[in-house]
Amino acid sequence: MQTLGEFIIEQQKDHQDASGELSKLLSSIKLATKIVNREVSKAGLVDILGGVGGENIQGEEQQKLDVFANKHFIKALQARGVVCGIASEENEDFIDCNTEDSKQAKYVVSMDPLDGSSNIDVNVSIGTIFSIYKRITPVGSPVELKDFLQKGIHQVAAGYVLYGASSMLVYSTGNGVNGFTFDPSIGTVYLSHPNIKTPEKGKIYSINEGNFNSFEQPIKSYIDYCKQEDKSSLRPYSARYIGSLVADFHRNLIKGGVYLYPSTSKAPNGKLRLLYECNPLAFLVEQAGGMATNGKERILEIQPTELHQRVPFVIGSKKMVEKVSAMH
Ligand code: AHG
Ligand code: MN
Ligand code: MN
Fold first, then answer.
1. H or E element, residue 101
2. What is the pLDDT of residue 47?
3. Residue 262 and residue 210: Cα distance in Å, rounded?
4. Residue 263 placed within a domain
5. pTM for the complete prediction?
């Protein structure tokens, strides 16, 4: 079986990454992934569970693992000088990586270092999400906000890590989606899911239905539709909602399904963040043959205006996302 390291090198040969910079960047992500995975798998044995007693910039309670993952991803990316800037859910502002090497780097990364924080303490799957762009400002100059506020269609690569029953890295450089599984006994990551394609339709819908009363009418109608009986369209669908976006997305990607985080009265723009949750997953789902919208527009074509911007999010199998859009 091919290892992730071998795969990255092979891709570099027949891809735009002639300088090998993107390969180095992906290798840094692989390293950080292993460090976080080691800590996640020991949770419960070492003092890594629970909150740090503070909130992040978005008013969410920070967990120890949020802070740990954030620190190690930033460290791995900074130490190797593979990116010139980093934006993270856990940092109010983007980081300008001001080392000699970093100044010459042409990529910026946006990330959700630990996704599904509320599931950490109960041993349920969590993840990491990342999105990579080429900077717009000239190499050698300070990184600017506009380097991060690029439309999702301009992503050079995107991916996620799922810390689950087994841990996986799934990513795309715009040339299909590939999934790799970590073998902890030898510390190696192997290509286990080559060229992932998501089914055109499925029978899973994933939404926090506790918010039903505050959904807008199109979403309420779609949920009713999911529950109606109709053999030809595989209904009623099954409801599956883990509460870790990465885990819910991964399941639906493989099995077929639709994930929705629409606007609610408490969160009028939805809850999920465009730059480091929605755009990277939208890039992957499209590469796998699926779709992602905010109900009306394609996620990848939304012009970001803020680092921590939220958007309503509908993602998954093409036919199912189309149906949600039709309800709008
Ligand atoms: P994060 O842990 O990075 O803040 O993300 C949490 C997100 C996402 O993972 C999940 O799908 C969603 O929050 C769940 O929200 P609800 O609890 O409102 O359903
Ligand atoms: Mn998240
Ligand atoms: Mn997070």
1. helix 100-104
2. 76
3. 12
4. yes
5. 0.96
